[in-house]
Write a structure and sequence with these properties.
InterPro entries: CmpB_TMEM229. There is one protein chain. The chain has five helices and two strands, in the order ααααββα. It is mostly helical and 197 residues long. It has one domain. The protein has a two-stranded antiparallel sheet. The longest helix is centred in the C-terminal third of the chain and has 63 residues, at 128-190. It is globular, with a radius of gyration of 19 Å. Residues 192-197 have low confidence and may be disordered.
C-alpha cells in the first residue's frame, strides 16, 4: 500500500541542478509569484473592494505563490499516485503558507494575513478551508496551468537565457529592500516615545 502510494514521488530529474534548470525555476517562480499577486489582490477587491493589498515585497509578486507551485511541479510526475498528488497539493502549499506566516511574524512582528476568526486554524497562519482551496488550485496548476506555462517557456527560453539572472538579481534586491523597510518600520514602532518636558 505504502509503496503504491509513493509511486512516482521523486524529483522528476536532476536538470534543476544545471544553469538551464535554474533559469527555468526562476521563470516559473516569477510567473507564479505574479499570478499569486493578481489572485490575492483580486480576492481583496471582491471581498473588501480594495485591489492593492499590502505586500511584503515592493514589486507585484507574492513569493509564497512562487515557491509552492515550483515545489509541486518538480515533485509530481505523470506516474505519481493520485492520492499522493492530492496529499502533496494539500501539504506543500499549507506548509509554505505556515512557514511564511510564522517567519514574517517572528522577524517583523506583523501578520500579513490572519485566519484567527476562521474555523480549524493554526496560529492564524493556516486554516483548513483555505488549505482545501489550495488543493483545488494546486491540482489545476499541476494538471492544466503548468503544462501551458512550460510550453510558453519552451518558446521564450532562448530569450529568457539572456535575462533570467537579472530577474534573479531583481528578486534578491527587492527582498533586501523589503527586509530593510519592514525592519526599520518595526524598529520605529518599538522605539519608546519621549514625552516633552
Amino acid at each position: 500500500m505504502l509503496m503504491s502510494l509513493l509511486q512516482g514521488f521523486t524529483v522528476q530529474n536532476f536538470e534543476i541542478l544545471t544553469i538551464e534548470g535554474a533559469a527555468a525555476i526562476v521563470f516559473y517562480f516569477t510567473v507564479y509569484s505574479f499570478f499569486g499577486w493578481l489572485l490575492e489582490n483580486s480576492y481583496s477587491f471582491f471581498t473588501k473592494r480594495e485591489f492593492f493589498k499590502e505586500n511584503f515585497l515592493y514589486g507585484p509578486f507574492k513569493p509564497m505563490y512562487g515557491f509552492a507551485p515550483v515545489l509541486l511541479v518538480y515533485l509530481i510526475s505523470p506516474e505519481t499516485n493520485g492520492l499522493m498528488m492530492i496529499l502533496l497539493c494539500f501539504f506543500i502549499p499549507t506548509l509554505v503558507e505556515y512557514v511564511s506566516g510564522a517567519m514574517l511574524q517572528k522577524f517583523f512582528h506583523k501578520q500579513w494575513w490572519d485566519y484567527s476568526g476562521t474555523p480549524m486554524q493554526l496560529h492564524g497562519h493556516i486554516c483548513l478551508p483555505f488549505s482545501i482551496c489550495w488543493v483545488f488550485l494546486s491540482l489545476a496548476v499541476v494538471k492544466w496551468i503548468h503544462p501551458a506555462i512550460a510550453s510558453m517557456y519552451g518558446v521564450i527560453e532562448p530569450y529568457w537565457a539572456w535575462v533570467w539572472s537579472a530577474a534573479g538579481l531583481y528578486f534578491l534586491a527587492d527582498l533586501v529592500l523589503a527586509v530593510r523597510r519592514h525592519s526599520l518600520q518595526n524598529f520605529l514602532s518599538d522605539e519608546p516615545t519621549n514625552p516633552i518636558q
